[in-house]
Design goal:
- The protein is built from seven helices and no strands.
- It is an all-alpha fold and 131 residues long.
């Protein structure tokens, strides 16, 4: 299968710049990966690197970045590996919720709905997201 120039260019940017990306950059890149349907198993390491970096930087993320990042993860079928990482991201969304809009929450809830193991999110957290 031939890889598109856009996909190759995006992979190159990710490899060169991951260490300098902030949460917004990572959310945008993951969103682009989802739009380009970059779900090939060979690209899994790139997705994991970006998701792990987002978790490290989540305390600086706003609601839009979180919603977009989780939507992309749901579309890519690649959510944070541990429940505690996911809870950390959702906790940040709840912390910034006064500045969030409905799209931020709907993207997040949609992404959570794509999860195979829904027990990874505490019932209390789900209740807070839905309230």
């Amino acid at each position: 299968k031939v890889q598109s120039r856009g996909t190759r260019a995006l992979e190159n940017v990710i490899k060169r710049r991951t260490s300098t990306m902030n949460a917004k950059h990572i959310a945008t890149i993951l969103h682009s990966m989802a739009a380009l349907r970059m779900t090939h198993p060979k690209q899994r390491a790139l997705r994991r690197t970006l998701i792990d970096r987002f978790v490290l930087l989540v305390d600086s993320a706003n609601g839009q970045s979180i919603g977009n990042m989780l939507w992309a993860c749901g579309k890519l079928e690649e959510l944070p590996e541990t429940g505690s990482d996911l809870e950390k991201i959702l906790g940040r969304l709840l912390d910034v919720s006064p500045s969030c809009n409905s799209q931020n929450f709907s993207n997040t809830i949609w992404a959570l709905g794509t999860m195979k193991d829904r027990r990874r999110v505490a019932d209390h957290t789900l209740e807070l997201l839905l309230s």
